[in-house]
Design goal:
Radius of gyration: 41 Å
Shape: elongated
Helix content: 40-55%
CATH architecture of the largest domain: 2-Layer Sandwich
Distance between the termini: 89 Å
Number of strands: 10
Strand content: 15-25%
Largest sheet: 8 strands, mixed
Number of helices: 12
Length: 360
């Protein structure tokens, strides 16, 4: 019996020293496993005399029970200690400010931002947004807009043409958003007031030109529309877009096949170092082309030029973004550099509006 007492003391001491559930499992296996000390002693009962078995059987079973109870109690203690340690290591301080999630880390691209600004300004003037396909027919991109057959814009060094069809015709990546104007005039009755933002394509690439760029055009068709209306629309747009109270503008004679008369528009500005200040100084900056819709364009859309007049304008969205937000290289718009977008991008939930401010 003294041997059993010594074994019990040894096992209980090992149980008390176990500092993890893995260590406690090792103690259990050493005592109660198939080859454990108590299990080995239980195997000897069959070789004992009935008198010895009558004495040792209850003693071994009692030892086995007490060791099992001690193992269970120690396991509960170790589980509780492990839970406390985990809770301490995973403590969350709810007084700390929340981390900015993807909703706030994302950025609106300057092209999307300026497009929204344009839409807000012209919507306030009563203009709807019209859209059309990027791939156009020769009729919508050139013929209906009064381009003569030998016009340079029809040559491959300026324009992206798709492979010829069986009938010899070729589709084209639109060189401007003017085809949307034609589609609008052939599908709607005047009065018409629309802006046409979208992608356009030309064979050109340098610091201020890319093969794909963004353009917005405006169109007004109604009875009695004249140059005074055009001038007012452009002045109000420039004041709202550049967020200045006064702006100087000058209209220079130019030539576009689809307008007559045609003009290019400059706005007053001042260059101070690398900063461009719109509405100040005596310098000038060209920003757009415009004019009265050519009578031939109206006729091509089955509109009577003796009854209706109209005006149109076009400007590059990318160029407007560069002017307003001080971006020196147009190619960076399309490089996909996250650092550039983090610097020039806009918060996704700040929707431009004339009340709250376009770029606030």
């Amino acid at each position: 019996m003294s041997e059993l007492n010594s074994l019990e003391q040894e096992i209980l001491a090992n149980i008390a020293k176990a500092d993890s559930e893995a260590a406690l499992e090792d103690v259990r296996v050493a005592a109660l496993g198939k080859k454990g000390k108590i299990s080995e002693m239980m195997k000897t009962l069959g070789k004992m005399t009935p008198e010895e078995r009558k004495e040792m059987g209850p003693a071994l079973n009692g030892l086995k029970g007490r060791v099992g109870d001690a193992l269970g109690a120690r396991k509960d203690v170790l589980k509780e200690e492990a839970l406390k340690a985990r809770l301490l290591s995973e403590t969350l301080d709810v007084t700390l400010p929340t981390r900015a999630g993807s909703m706030f880390e994302g950025r609106v691209h300057p092209i999307a931002q300026v497009t929204q600004e344009l839409t807000a300004i012209f919507a306030d003037m009563g203009f709807a947004v019209a859209e059309g396909p990027d791939i156009e027919t020769d009729f919508y991109n050139f013929t209906a807009l009064n381009f003569p057959p030998d016009h340079p814009a029809r040559l491959e060094h300026d324009t992206f043409f798709l492979p010829e069809k069986e009938d010899g015709s070729q589709m084209v990546l639109r060189t401007h958003t003017s085809p949307v104007q034609i589609r609008t005039m052939t599908s709607q009755e005047p009065p018409i007031r629309v802006i046409c933002p979208g992608r356009t394509y030309r064979c050109d690439s340098d610091q201020t030109h890319t093969p794909m760029f963004h353009q917005v055009e405006g169109l007004v068709i109604e009875e009695g529309a004249h140059m005074g209306h055009l001038k007012w629309v452009l002045e109000e747009f420039c004041k709202a877009f550049f967020e200045v109270d006064n702006i100087k503008m000058r209209f220079r004679a130019s030539h576009f096949p689809f307008t007559e008369p045609s003009m290019e528009v400059d706005i007053g500005c001042q260059r101070v170092g690398n900063e461009l200040r719109i509405g100040e100084g005596d310098d000038w900056l060209e920003i757009l082309g415009c004019g009265m819709v050519h009578p031939n364009v109206l006729r091509n859309c089955d509109l009577d030029p003796d009854k209706y007049t109209g005006f149109a304008w076009g400007m590059g969205i990318d160029r407007l973004a560069m002017l307003k937000y001080g971006m020196p290289d147009l190619r960076a718009f399309f490089n996909g550099d996250k650092r550039w977008l983090d610097h020039y991008g806009f918060a996704p939930l700040d929707i431009p509006g004339l009340v709250g401010g376009l770029s606030s």
